[in-house]
């Protein structure tokens, strides 16, 4: 990672303009912006930033690092970055619309400006947001970038949903704080205090709920719609028996194989799974068919989403609410023997 450059106050102020949001397949001027054009836009902005910094260095001084300008590709990482940065960071998350499919997101010219004006960029990596490195190509290493996949050593093709792995979230927290301290060394102790408060207070109920589910329901067989649940399930001590190939296929937008369909149908109809967890932001034809079967068999179910629901909530409030939903479904399954209970 490279040290962020000194940024003029005018550039810092302009970074408060958030990037636009648009779903894949949208129309309008933003949809026609190509990656090449965005890189040209970034190049011009970066040149202007460099010129402004060189002419205002005498007045900016240490104040240039007091409020770190941060761009997060997705709001789940952006929420964490904002809470760790506190008063010394201004965070703009690009993907915030709960109705947007992050896998198919197409960036806008506004997103290009947001990234270009940031001192610190957080991207998920692992093929989840490939538009970020493309738009940063003109940066020439001037921006500190945290690629979560690279940090965790997850190769291309691996499961990109790392924010659903509590151990991975802890590693990201540590790296974010380290990056903040490199960019703004004058506030090292402040960021350290933010980290302690976030881990011990803000994440308190999230951690307690994880522990509670693991202690009470370890080993319970469950099913899921896709790979987004593949790391959270073992963290909860649950036995996810849906074929890994099926989880990966749905997560990547592919159709299920005939063999995987038959296996999943048998698991549902035979009540081999006691709870079903699905991503409500990615309900494909195959997932809808599974959910219909689950309801018909009165198997409790719970929902999770890719991004914050609602967009205004925090990472920990969102995750805790989902965990409580999973816990409620597990409780119904345990009390009813996975039969005669209504899903919800």
What does this structure look like?
With 344 residues, the protein is α/β, with parallel strands linked by helices. The chain folds into two domains: 9-202, Rossmann fold, CATH 3.40.50; 205-336, Nitrogenase molybdenum iron protein domain (Rossmann fold). It has 14 helices and eight strands. The strands form two sheets. It has a four-stranded parallel β-sheet, sandwiched between helices. α5 (131-135) links the parallel β3 and β4. α9 (204-217) packs parallel to α14 (315-336). Residues 1-64 and 338-344 have low confidence and may be disordered.
Please write out the topology:
Elements: H1 9-14, H2 35-60, E1 68-74, H3 75-85, E2 89-95, H4 109-116, E3 120-123, H5 131-135, E4 144-147, H6 148-152, H7 166-183, H8 188-202, H9 204-217, E5 221-224, H10 232-235, E6 239-240, H11 244-251, H12 258-269, E7 275-279, H13 285-296, E8 301-304, H14 315-336
Parallel strand pairs: 1-2, 1-3, 3-4, 5-6, 5-7, 7-8
Helix pairs in contact: 2-4, 3-7, 7-8, 9-14, 12-13
Classified in CATH, the superfamily of the largest domain is Nitrogenase molybdenum iron protein domain
| β-strand amount | 5-15%
Fraction in helix: 40-55%
Number of helices: 14
The top level CATH class name of the largest domain: Alpha Beta
Q: What would the CATH topology of the largest domain be?
A: Rossmann fold
Distance between the termini: 45 Å
Q: Mean pLDDT, rounded to whole units?
A: 83
Number of domains: 2
Gyration radius, in Å: 22 Å
Strand and helix order = HHEHEHEHEHHHHEHEHHEHEH
Could you give a short account of the major beta sheet?
A: 4 strands, parallel
Unreliable spans are 1-64, 338-344
- Strand adjacency order, main sheet: 2-1-3-4
Bulk shape: globular
CATH architecture of the largest domain: 3-Layer(aba) Sandwich
Structural class assignment: alpha/beta
């Amino acid at each position: 990672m490279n040290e962020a450059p000194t940024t003029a106050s005018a550039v810092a102020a302009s970074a408060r303009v958030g990037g636009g949001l648009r779903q894949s397949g949208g129309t309008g001027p933003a949809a026609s912006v190509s990656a090449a054009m965005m890189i040209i836009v970034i190049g011009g902005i970066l040149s202007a930033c460099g010129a402004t910094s060189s002419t205002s260095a005498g007045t900016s001084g240490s104040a240039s690092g007091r409020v770190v300008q941060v761009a997060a590709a997705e709001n789940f990482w952006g929420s964490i970055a904002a809470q760790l940065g506190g008063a010394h960071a201004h965070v703009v998350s690009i993907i915030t619309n709960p109705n947007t499919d992050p896998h198919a997101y197409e960036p806008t010219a506004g997103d290009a400006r947001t990234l270009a004006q940031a001192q610190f960029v957080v991207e998920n990596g692992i093929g989840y947001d490939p538009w970020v490195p493309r738009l940063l190509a003109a940066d020439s290493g001037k921006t500190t970038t945290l690629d979560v996949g690279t940090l965790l050593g997850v190769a291309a093709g691996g499961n990109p949903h790392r924010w659903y792995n509590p151990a991975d979230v802890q590693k990201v927290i540590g790296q974010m704080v380290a990056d903040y301290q490199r960019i703004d060394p004058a506030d090292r102790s402040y960021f350290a205090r933010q980290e302690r408060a976030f881990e011990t207070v803000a994440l308190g109920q999230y951690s307690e709920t994880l522990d509670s589910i693991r202690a009470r329901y370890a080993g319970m067989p469950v099913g899921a719609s896709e790979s987004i649940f593949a790391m959270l399930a073992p963290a909860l001590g649950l036995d996810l028996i849906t074929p890994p190939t099926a989880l990966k296929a749905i997560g990547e937008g592919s159709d299920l194989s005939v063999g995987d369909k038959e296996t999943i149908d048998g698991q549902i109809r035979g009540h081999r799974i006691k709870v079903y967890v699905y991503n409500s932001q990615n309900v494909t034809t195959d997932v809808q068919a599974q959910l219909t079967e689950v309801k018909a068999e009165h198997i409790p179910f719970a929902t999770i989403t890719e991004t914050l629901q609602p967009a205004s909530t925090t990472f920990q409030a969102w995750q805790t609410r989902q965990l409580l939903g999973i816990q409620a479904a597990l409780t119904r399954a345990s009390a009813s023997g996975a039969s005669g209970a209504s899903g919800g």
